Amino acid sequence: MISELELLLNRRWILKSADKELYYRVRDSLREVRKFSSEKLGCNIVENPLLVKMEKIPAIPERFMGIQEFSSKQEYAYLCVLLMFLEDKDAQEQFILSQLTEYIASNMPSEPVDWTLYTNRRYLIKVLRYAVKQGMIAVTDGSDDDFMDDAAGEVLYENTGASRYFMRNFSRDIMTFSRPGEFSKSEWLEIDEDRGIARRQRVYKRLIFAPGMYRTNGSHEDFEYLKNQGNNLRNVLENMFDCRVHIHKGSAFLISGDGCRMGETFPGNNVISDILLMCCGAIRQRVEEGLWTLSADDTCVVDIVEFDDMLSEVRKNYRSGFTKNYREMPEGEFVKNVTEELERWMFIRKNENTHQVMIYPAAGKIQGSYPDDYTPADDITGEK
Predict the structure, then answer these.
(1) Helix-strand-coil percent breakdown of the chain, rounded to 5?
(2) Does pLDDT of 191 surpass 60?
(3) CATH no. for residue 295?
(4) 109 CB contacts (<8 Å, ≥6 apart)?
(5) Can you spell out the DSSP letters for 190-257?
(6) Taking the model in full, what pTM does it have?
(7) Domain membership flag for residue 327
(8) Is there a domain that residue 18 lies in?
(9) Which of 219, 235, 262 is the last residue of a domain?
(10) Residue 94 CA, distance from chain mean position
(11) Domain range for 7
C-alpha cells in the first residue's frame, strides 16, 4: 500500500494508456490509499477508466508549485484555453494545430494573438509539449518544429480525454471568485465547522507537499497542533514512509530516507544542489559569527544587498569546483539563478518591496563543504 500511495503523491496521475499494469495495481490498492488521503490530507481520489489521480491541493500555495516548464503568464493562459478547446473534444478525436491556434486567437481575453511572432509560437509549443508529456494529447503526424519555424506549419494531434481531469474539482461556482485567495479559502469552507479536521489536514499537507513548514507562514494554529499532536503525527508518517519528522519551535520538516519516493528531494545529484549547500554553510557561518541575527522563530532577515554579497562570495571562493556552466556564468546571472533555487526549496523568501530576504530555518539544518584539502584555484576566467 505504501508504494502505491507514494506513486500517487509523486505523480500527477497514473494513466491506463501509459502503464496498464501499474494502473490496475494502484486501483486495486485504493481502499487503503483513500483512508490516508481522506483522513490525513483531505485529498480526493479520482478513479475512472482513463486514470487514477490524487487531487493534491496544497494548504499554502508556494512558488515552486507552478509548472516548471513555463516561464511566463502567457503560457499559463494558453494552457487554460487549450483545456477549454479539449473540453469539447471526445477521447481519440483528432485535430490539427491550425484549429487550435484559431480557437486561441478567438478566446484569449487580451488582445488578439499574432502567430507570426516567434515568441507566441514558442510559448504555444512549450504548452503543447507539456500537454503531450502529461498524456493529455498525442502527436499523430508532423513535427511542432515546423510551426516553430513558420506559422503555417501543421501538426496532427489526438485528444486522449485526460485533460478533463487536469484541473481540480470545485464544490462551488468559481465564476463568483474575484481574488486568488478565494480559491484556497474555498478548500476549507465545507469543513470549517470542524476546525480540528481542517487543522490536521493542513499540517499533513504542509509537511508532505512542501520542503518544510514555518511558523511565520500560514496559521499559528498549525503549530499548536504540532505541539499537542506532534508525537502521533510523527508515528503515523514514520510508520507510513521511510522518513523522519523533525519538529522545532518555529519549523517542522519531513526528512526523506533513501527508500522514500514521494517526490523530488534535496540535495539532488547535481551542481546546483552543491552550490545551495555551500550557500547554507555561508549563512550558518554568518549567524554563528554574530553578523546575522536570528529571531525567536529561528528566521533571519537581511538586506538584499548583503545577501547578494554573500552569494557572490560563495561564487568567488568555490567556483573553481563548479561545472563549466556555473563557473563561467556572469555574477549577476549566478546570483539570480541561485536566489531562485533557494526560494524554490524554501530556504529563503525574497521581498522586493522591503528589499530584504527572509532566511528560513531550513538553511541552518543542512550545509555542504568541499574536502579539507580543497584549495580555491585560479579558474579559466583568471579570477580567484
Answers:
(1) 50, 10, 40
(2) no
(3) 1.10.10
(4) 77
(5) TTTT-HHHHHHHHHHHHHHHSS-EETTSS-THHHHHHHHHHHHHHHHHHHHSSEEEEE-SSEEEEEE-
(6) 0.87
(7) yes
(8) yes
(9) 262
(10) 31
(11) 1-57
Last residue of a domain, one of 213, 241, 262: 262
125 occurs within a structural domain: yes
pLDDT of residue 188: 53
DSSP per-residue string spanning 32-97 = HHHHHIIIII---EEE-SSEEEE----SS--GGGS-TT--SHHHHHHHHHHHHHHHTSPTT-EEEH
Cα separation, 179 vs 181, in Å, equals 5
Domain match, 77 and 159 both: yes
Residue 358 confidence class, pLDDT cut points 50, 70, 90: very high
Count of domains observed in the chain? 4
What pairs with residue 141 in β-bridges? 156
Residue 380 in any domain: the answer is no
CA distance 57 to 34: 15
254-312 residue pLDDT tens:
999 888 888 888 888 899 999 999 999 999 999 999 999 999 899 999 999 999 999 99
Query: Residue 376's pLDDT is what?
Result: 60
Q: Please say whether the beta carbons of 265 and 344 come within 8 A.
A: no
Task: Pull the grid cell for residue 136.
Answer: 493529455
Backbone φ and ψ for 251, nearest 5 degrees, come out as -160, 165
pLDDT band with cut points at 50, 70 and 90 for residue 34: very high
Is it the case that residue 76 has pLDDT exceeding 70?
yes
Q: Are residues 4 and 37 in the same domain?
A: yes
Residue 194 gets the label, from left (phi > 0), alpha (psi -120 to 50) or beta, of beta
Q: CA 240 to CA 3: how far, in whole Å?
A: 10
Take residue 65 and report the three cell numbers written for it.
508549485
